[in-house]
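Task card 7
Instruction: Convert sequence to C-alpha cells.
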Amino acid sequence: MSARVERHAGTFLLIVGSSVVAVAGTDLVLPAVPGLPAALGGDLAAAQLVLASFTAGSAVGFALFGALGARFDPRWLLAGSLLAYALASWLCTLSGSLNSLIAVRFVQGIASASAAVFAPGFLRRLYGDTGAVGALGALASVQALVPALAPLLGVWLLGVGGWRASFQVLAFLALIAAVIVGWRHRRLPKPAAVGGSGGYVRLLRDRTFLRYAVSHACTLGALLVFVFGAPTVMTTSLNGTLMDFIIMQCSGIACFVVAANLTGFLVRRFGAERMIWCGTWMTAVGGMVMSAYAMAGGRNLRMVTVIFLLLNIGLAVRGPPGFHRAIVAARDDARGAALASMAILLTVSAGTACVAPFIAQGLVPLAAGATLLAIAGVILLWVLPGLAT
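Output:
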C-alpha cells in the first residue's frame, strides 16, 4: 500500500471492504451452483441462470446508481444498497425453487452495483487526481484476489453448511459493511459537483470519455474472454487439468497485483497517457503472441501461462490510469463509473458469446478472440481524442 493510500487507510479499507463484498456475490456462490438442481429442482442450464441473473441485475444497478448518484448523497446510497444487498442475500437462503432464487439474485445484483459506481469517485475525492491512480491500483489488486480466493472459501462453506451457507455469509458481511458505512459515513469524502448536463446521453456522445472507457473495456475484456474459455480449452484440447488452469490464473493474479501497485509510481514518473498506451499495447502484443503460438501448433501449458502473464501485466499498467481518466473525462463520477462498468460487462459478454461456438477447436479461436479485443483497444486510443495533459 502506497504512502498516499496509508494517509486515509481506514477510509480506504472501508471502500475496499464494500467493493469486495459486492464482487464476491458471484465467486463465493460459484461452487454451489452445480448442486442447486438436486437441492431446488430444475437442471444445470437453469442453475447457470443463478449466475446470469446476478450479472444482469448488476448491469441494471450500474445504470440506476449512476443516475441516483448525481441526485443524492452517494454515501447514504452506498449504505442503503449494502443493506438491500444483505436482505436480498438472506432472502436467497429462503428460496424454495431455482426460479425464486434466480429472481432474488437479480435484485441482489442490482444492490451489489453501488460500490463499483461510487468507489472511483470516493477515491478521487480522497486522494486527488494524482493519488487516485495509485489508490485505484491498490483497489484493483485486492479485487483481483477475490476470483482466486472466494471460490476456495465457497467450497469450504458448501461442505460445512450446504448451498445456503455462502448466501448467509454474504448477508452477514453486507450487513456489517452497511452498518459501518452508515456509522462512519462522514469519513467518506463529500460527493463532487456534477459537471455538464445530459446524463448518459451526453456521455455516449463524448468521444473523449468513450476513448478511455471503451478501450479499457476492450483490454479487460481480452483478458476475461481468455480466462472464461481457458478451463475448457486447457482440459480438452491441451490435455491439461483444472489445476493447470488454477496455476495459470494464480500466476496472472500475482503479476497483476504487483504491477497494479506499481502503477501509481509509474504514472507519476512517466505520465498517465504513456502508461495507458504501454499497457494497452502490452495486452495486444500478448494476444498476438498467444495467437501466433496457437497457430504454430503450440500446446505447452507452461508457455501458455507465461504468455498469459503479458495480458495481466498490460491490464494492470493501463487499468488504473485508464479508468481514472474515463471518470475525469465524464465530469460525472457516478455516471462515468457506471457506463464504464457497463461497457466491461457488454464487452465480456459479447466476446465470450462470439468465441463459444468455436471453443471446441482449441486455443486458436480463444486466442484470436482475445487478440481482436485487445487490438480494438489500441485502435480506440488511436482514433479518439484524449484529455489534455
